[in-house]
Design a protein that fits this description.
heterodimer, A: alpha/beta, Rossmann fold, B: alpha/beta, Pyruvate-ferredoxin Oxidoreductase, domain 3, 4 domains, seven-stranded mixed sheet, 35% helix, globular, binds thiamine diphosphate, binds iron/sulfur cluster, binds magnesium ion
C-alpha cells in the first residue's frame, strides 16, 4: 500500500466528486474531507478499490463528496455496513466516517465490537461534541455543563465519553486524535491509519461553528502529545486519561490479531460438486 | 362416513414422552432414521418443557407410506418412559378413545388429563427390561418395542444404533443394542401389527429439517455471506450454514446484534456477494430500519424469519404464523419488497432459493417466512429436484462515455449495479432519496420517479406459477399460507375422498400480491375458508386488503402453539358456518 514513486503524482481532487457539500461555511468537516482525499492521493490508491461508508449526520455526508465507492447508510450502523463489506471483499481499502453521535451514541455498540473484532479498516470519528444535523443537541462527547440545547437546558449532567479510552479498552489496535484545523497533520495520520493492519480509529476534532461557535477557539488550545506513540496499552491508557482531550497524535499502535474470514476472490462461481455433497448428507 | 377422520390411512402417529435424561428425543430420532432406512416417509416434531436443559421432552412422529406434511388429528400411540410433568404436553398430544397408551407400571399412575382421553392402556416393563442389561436404558427398549411393532429391519437398526452411539464407546452401543433387542422381541400385548407398509420401490428420499432446507436453498440461490445474531428457532439454520459457507468460499459472521447483522449483509451485498441473515420475530423487529436501507439503496438482501410465538419474547420454542403483519407492513415509508413463505420442508429449499434469485435479479429485498414447526421438524421427503431457476443474475453496467447512473430509470425498473472494484462506475449508494445518479434529492420529481421504479420492478416481473400452490376444483376454496399448507392439503384430500371437491390455494408469494392470478384461481368459487395460525387473523386481513374476493370468507384462525389439524379444517368445511 506504499505510494508508487514512479507514478505521476495523483492530485487529491481526483478523489472528489462534483457534488457540492451541504455543510455550513467554516464547518470542520470540509477539512476532514480534504484530509481524506489527500491521504488517498498520497497512497495513490485506485478509486475503484476504495470504499468509504458512513451513517447519518452532517459528517456522514462525506462519501458522496468523494469519487471512490461510497455508502451513505443509516444512523449509527456504518461500522456494521463496513464490516460486512470488508468480510466479503477483503481486498478493498475500507474507510468509515461519521459523527460523535453516530459512532458513540446510537452506534456505540458497533463501535466497541468493531474495535474488538479488529478488522483491517479505518474509522474517522468527526467529533464536534454536538449533533449538528439535528440542530444542536448534546452528544456523548459534550461536556456535562453545556446548557445551550433546549433538550438539556441544565446540561446533560453526565460525564462525556473519552473516545480514545473507549477504543483502547475495547481492543482497537491503532488510536489517534487529529484536528480539522491541521488538515495536513490529519492527512498524514490517515495515511498511517490506512497502512496499519487492523482497526484504526482516528478521533478528528472537527468544530461545528453553527452550534458550538465557542469551539472555534480550539485552534488556540490544541497541541500535539509530547510523548511518541506507544504499543503498551497501560502507558497509552495513562496518557489518554491524563490528557484533557485536546492533544493530538497517534497514541497507541500495536500489531494485534486481525479478524478476517476467508473469502474466495470470485465466490460466485458455484461449485456444484460442493452443493451436491451437502445434498448427499440428507440422502444418508 | 365422517370425512373428518383419516380414512384409508397408511400412516401411524406415535408420541414418545419422558423426563429430561430419559432420552426420548434420541429414541425418536433413531426411530425416524430407521423408518427412513426402511423405506418410509415421515415427520418428527420435538417438544420441550420450559427448562433450558434436562426438562421433560417429547418426540412426536408420524410415519407412513406416502409423504407426510402435517401431524394427524390424534396420536395412535403414546409411549411414556415416565410421567414427570408430561401433563404439560397433554394439549400437544391429542389422544382419541381409539388410541393406546403404553406405560411402565413402575413409573406410577397416568396423569388424569392424559387418562381422561379414554385411550386404552397397556403396560410394558421398560425399566425392568432395561435393568437386565448393565447400563441399559428404557428409551432403547421403547425403540425396540416400536420398531418391532412397525416391522422395521432389526439388522439395519443395530447398525443405526451403533453409529448413533459410536462416540460414546462400544459398551454404550452394545448395551443399547441389547435393550433394543429385548424390546424388539417382546412386542406389545394387545397391539396388532401397525397397518403401514414401506413404499414398495422407494424413490430417493431425503431426511432433513426445515432450517437445513432453508440453508440449502439460500446456498443454491448463490448466497456466500451471512451475518446473524443467535435466536431460537433460527440458530440451527445458522449452525448448519456456517461450515458450509466456508466450504463454498464464503463466510458467516456472528454479529453483535441484529442491527449489525442486517447492515453487515447490506455491506457484503453492496460488495457484490449475495448475502442473507436468519432471525425470528424480535430480531426481525430490530432489523427493519436496515431493511429499509436495503430497499432504498436497492441492495439485494434476504432475511429468513423463523416465526415463533409472539409478541415480545413470547413462546420462543413454539410455532405461530404471527410475523405476517410485521413482514408485510413493518416498514416506514413506501418500501416495496418481497415477502415469501415456505409451504413445507421441501419447499423451504425452493422458496429460499427463489427468494435469493429474485432479490438478486430485481435488486430487491426479501423476507422469507418459515416457522418453528417447519424449521425444527425433521422430515423424510421425496428427494427434491434441483431446479435451475431461469432468472437473471445482477444486471451489470456497460462502460460507456456517459457518466454511470446507479439509479437510472429503465424499462423494467432494474438499474445496472456496479460493485467496488469495477472501474469507472464509482457511485455512492444512498438511503437518502436520490436522483438517478445517486445524488441526494428531496425533489418531488426524483422521489416519485424512484418510488415508481422501485415498485414497478417488483410489480412488472413475471413470477409465473410459483406465487401459490393451487389445486382441486369445486366451489369451496381453502386459502392458506406457509406451514398451514400441510394440514390444508390433507383436509382437501379427505374431503375429496368423501366426495366433497375443494380447491386449495396455498400462498408462497405474499408481496407483491398477485391479484390477477388470485382472481383466476378463485373463478367460480362460492365460499372461502381462510386458514392461519394467528389469533388476530392477520392473513384474513391481508387477503381483504390486497384482493377483491367476492365470495364470503370464513376464517379458521388459531394461535400457537397448537398446530391446526386437518380434521379441524374438514370440520369447518363440512359444517360450514360464517364467522360469528
Ligand atoms: C434512527 C435515527 N434516529 C435519529 C435520527 C436523527 N439524527 C440524524 S443525524 C443525528 C445526529 C448526528 O450527530 P453526529 O453523528 O454527531 O453528526 P454531526 O451532524 O454532528 O456531524 C440524529 C440524531 C436518525 N436519522 N435516525
Ligand atoms: S451544523 Fe455544524 S456540523 Fe453541521 S454542517 Fe453546519 S457547521 Fe458543520
Ligand atoms: Mg457531531
Amino acid at each position: 500500500m506504499s505510494p508508487d514513486k514512479t507514478a505521476i503524482r495523483i492530485k487529491p481532487r481526483q478523489y472528489k466528486s462534483d457534488i457540492k457539500p451541504v455543510w455550513c461555511p467554516g464547518c470542520g468537516h470540509f477539512a476532514v474531507l480534504n484530509a481524506i482525499t489527500k491521504a488517498l492521493a498520497h497512497l495513490a490508491l485506485a478509486n475503484k478499490d476504495v470504499a468509504l461508508l458512513s451513517g447519518i449526520g452532517c459528517s456522514s455526508r462525506v462519501p458522496a463528496y468523494t469519487s471512490v465507492y461510497g455508502f451513505h447508510g443509516i444512523h449509527g450502523r456504518a461500522l456494521a455496513l463496513a464490516s460486512g463489506l470488508k468480510a466479503a471483499r477483503p481486498e478493498l481499502t475500507v474507510l468509515v466516517a461519521g459523527g460523535d453521535g453516530d459512532g458513540l451514541s446510537i452506534g456505540g455498540n458497533h463501535f466497541i465490537h468493531a474495535c474488538r473484532r479488529n478488522m483491517d479498516m479505518t474509522y474517522i470519528i468527526m467529533d464536534n461534541e454536538v449533533y449538528g444535523m439535528t440542530k444542536g443537541q448534546a452528544s456523548p462527547t459534550t461536556a456535562p455543563d453545556w446548557t445551550m440545547s433546549k433538550l438539556t437546558p441544565h446540561g446533560t449532567g453526565q460525564r462525556p465519553f473519552q473516545p480514545a479510552a473507549l477504543a483502547l479498552a475495547a481492543g482497537a489496535s491503532f488510536i489517534a486524535r487529529g484536528f480539522s484545523g491541521d488538515p495536513n497533520g490529519l492527512a498524514q495520520m490517515l495515511v498511517k491509519a490506512i497502512q496499519h493492519r487492523g482497526f484504526s480509529v482516528i478521533q478528528a476534532l472537527s468544530p461545528c461553528p453553527t452550534y458550538r461557535p465557542e469551539h472555534m477557539d480550539w485552534k488556540h488550545q490544541i497541541r500535539e502529545f509530547t510523548e511518541p506513540c506507544t504499543d503498551d496499552p497501560i502507558t497509552a491508557a495513562q496518557r489518554i486519561q491524563a490528557d484533557d482531550g485536546q492533544s493530538t497524535g497517534i497514541v497507541f499502535q500495536r500489531e494485534l490479531p486481525v479478524w478476517q474470514p476467508y473469502h474466495q476472490k470470485s465466490p460466485l462461481r458455484a461449485p456444484t460438486a460442493v452443493l451436491k455433497s451437502f445434498e448427499q448428507e440428507f440422502a444418508l | 362416513m365422517n370425512p373428518a377422520t383419516n380414512t384409508n390411512k397408511q400412516d401411524i402417529s406415535v408420541a414418545l414422552v419422558g423426563s429430561g435424561g430419559a432420552g426420548v428425543v434420541a429414541a425418536g430420532e433413531l426411530l425416524l432414521t430407521l423408518a427412513f432406512e426402511s423405506g418410509y416417509y415421515g415427520l418428527m416434531r420435538k417438544a420441550y418443557g420450559p427448562q433450558i436443559r434436562g426438562g421433560e421432552s417429547a418426540a412426536l412422529l408420524r410415519l407412513g407410506s406416502y409423504p407426510i406434511y402435517c401431524m394427524d388429528d390424534n396420536f395412535d400411540l403414546l409411549l411414556a418412559l415416565d410421567w414427570q410433568n408430561t401433563e404439560r404436553f397433554a394439549a400437544e398430544i391429542p389422544l382419541a378413545d381409539t388410541s393406546l397408551i403404553i406405560a411402565d407400571p413402575a413409573a406410577g399412575a397416568i396423569p388424569p388429563v392424559i387418562a381422561a382421553s379414554g385411550a386404552a392402556v397397556e403396560s410394558a416393563e421398560l425399566a425392568a427390561m432395561a435393568g437386565e442389561t448393565p447400563g441399559g436404558r428404557g428409551n432403547m427398549v421403547a425403540l425396540g418395542l416400536l420398531s418391532g411393532w412397525l416391522g422395521l429391519d432389526a439388522t439395519k437398526a443395530r447398525r443405526c444404533i451403533s453409529a448413533a452411539f459410536s462416540d460414546k464407546g462400544s459398551e454404550v452401543a452394545a448395551s443399547s443394542i441389547a435393550c433394543f433387542e429385548r424390546g424388539f422381541v417382546t412386542g406389545i400385548k394387545g397391539l396388532a401389527a401397525a397397518n403401514i407398509t414401506p413404499t414398495s420401490s422407494p424413490e430417493p428420499r431425503w431426511h432433513l429439517s426445515g432450517n437445513e432446507a432453508c440453508g440449502l436453498g439460500v446456498l443454491r440461490g448463490g448466497v456466500r455471506f451471512a451475518a446473524a445474531y443467535p435466536i431460537t428457532p433460527a440458530s440451527d439454520m445458522l449452525e448448519w450454514l456456517a461450515p458450509r459457507l466456508e466450504q463454498l468460499g464464503g463466510s458467516l459472521l456472528q454479529a453483535e446484534d441484529e442491527l449489525a447483522s442486517i447492515n453487515m449483509i447490506i455491506g457484503a451485498s453492496f460488495g457484490g456477494v449475495p448475502a442473507m441473515t436468519a432471525t425470528s420475530g424480535p430480531g426481525l423487529a430490530l432489523m427493519l430500519e436496515g431493511f429499509g436501507l436495503a430497499i432504498a439503496s436497492e441492495t439485494p438482501v434476504v432475511i429468513i424469519n423463523v416465526m415463533r410465538g409472539g409478541p415480545s419474547t413470547g413462546i420462543p420454542t413454539k410455532s405461530e404464523q404471527t410475523d405476517l403483519n410485521i413482514a408485510l407492513y413493518g416498514m416506514h415509508g413506501d418500501a416495496p419488497h418481497l415477502v415469501l413463505a415456505a409451504l413445507d420442508t421441501s419447499d423451504c429449499i425452493f422458496t429460499s432459493q427463489w427468494a435469493v434469485r429474485l432479490a438478486e435479479a430485481l435488486q430487491a429485498s426479501a423476507i422469507v417466512l418459515s416457522d418453528q414447526g417447519l424449521a425444527q421438524s425433521r422430515a423424510l421427503i421425496p428427494a427434491p429436484a434441483s431446479p435451475e431457476l431461469a432468472l437473471a443474475v445482477r444486471k451489470k453496467p456497460e462502460i460507456t462515455d456517459a457518466p454511470y447512473q446507479r439509479y437510472a430509470i429503465t424499462e423494467d425498473g432494474v438499474s445496472p449495479m456496479a460493485v467496488p472494484g469495477d472501474a469507472q462506475t464509482m457511485y455512492t449508494a444512498d438511503g437518502l432519496e436520490h436522483s438517478p445518479s445517486g445524488k441526494p434529492s428531496s425533489a418531488f420529481a426524483d422521489h416519485s420517479a424512484q418510488l415508481d421504479k422501485r415498485q414497478g420492478k417488483l410489480q412488472q416481473f413475471d413470477y409465473g406459477e410459483h406465487w401459490a400452490e393451487t389445486g382441486g376444483d369445486g366451489d369451496t376454496a381453502i386459502i392458506c399460507w406457509g406451514s398451514s399448507t400441510g394440514a390444508a392439503r390433507e383436509a382437501r384430500q379427505r374431503l375429496q375422498q368423501a366426495g366433497i371437491p375443494v380447491r386449495l390455494i396455498a400462498m408462497r408469494l405474499l408481496l407483491p400480491a398477485r391479484s390477477a392470478q388470485m382472481d383466476e384461481a378463485l373463478r367460480g368459487v362460492k365460499r372461502v375458508l381462510v386458514v392461519e395460525q394467528s389469533h388476530s387473523r392477520q392473513f384474513l386481513h391481508y387477503l381483504r386488503a390486497h384482493f377483491d374476493i367476492d365470495a364470503p370468507m370464513a376464517c379458521l384462525a388459531k394461535p400457537g402453539p397448537l398446530s391446526i389439524s386437518p380434521g379441524e379444517i374438514v370440520e369447518r368445511i363440512s359444517n360450514w358456518r360464517q364467522d360469528p
